[in-house]
Predict the structure.
Amino acid sequence: MGEELWWTKHRDWLATCGYTLRPRYQADWTPSFTPDQDQDDFEDGVSIYKPVLDATRIVNGVEQFVILKRVPPRDGKEEVETFELLTSEPLASDPRNHTSPLLEVLQVPDEPEHRLLVMPLLRLHDDPKFETFGEAIAFFTQIFEGIQFMHEHHIAHRDCTHHNIMLDPTGMYSTPFHPIEQHMRRDWKGKAKPRRTRTQLRPRYLFIDFGLSRAYSPTDGDPPMDLPVRGGDKTVPEHVNYDEPCDPFAVDVYYLGNLIRTHFMMKYHGFSFMQPLVQDMVARDPSKRPKMNEVVARFKTIRQSVSCWKLRSRMVSRKEWRIVGFARSFGHWSRRLGYIVTRQSAIPDV
């Protein structure tokens, strides 16, 4: 409730900046639900508990759904600087840069030490689910080159974990999805269903949340050594000892390798072709992990070795029942034949 009160307190100022909050945060809001009803069943009952909120922005007469993130005074300064560095020229124009766009940085007038980062509304990278191995390989390609790009510019993300890698859903949905309950339509009139698949859309995957990120100087050493900061993945071997400096770039490599291991290899059949590379990326000894340049080079060879049939094949969950799988496979290959006829690439690169 405290976070929501902060946003309602600042709604009028945000309106002068061109940002409109949902009805729940307006002065004339009256709940559409009664005290004896479950408020989570209603659009205006969905609340937030983090310093992040959605808003609507009007650009040249067109509505744009955005996310506002309030950053604290201490850590926020470095987050803003890193985010602005990655989204400014000449870095912004590099196609390997997979940083979320930063649309604007607002300074809160009555709290000048706080800033609001304005970003486009995105979806978690695996929502909706990946369908084919080719779609997964396109995802691996983008996240590898995105972190390689940061490392080349001496920036370690330090939290490139599952919840900080997003999908740009532009063109994927025929009706807007709700910014908080993204499985629902924005108007709350049913489920939000994509009208285009990843194969058809060829989406970009983007990194967010630079609260733990840091830009290093080439004079800091190769690699630079820094005290551990724990991100969303708590399994990094060298983070056991908080007092011992470690290589933040090797931590990024571990995060990506463990993401693929836990969210693809352990959840789906058929990813054995990634085993040698991922095994090296999550080595307990960080000095034995490949650098991102080597990761990208080795992965390029791997993706060239995967057959077209495999690339177009359906990713099958390890928990899927065989009879269900048969029915899904029939529909899957019907769609894939259409993609072959229309010359949709098996790896939907951007």
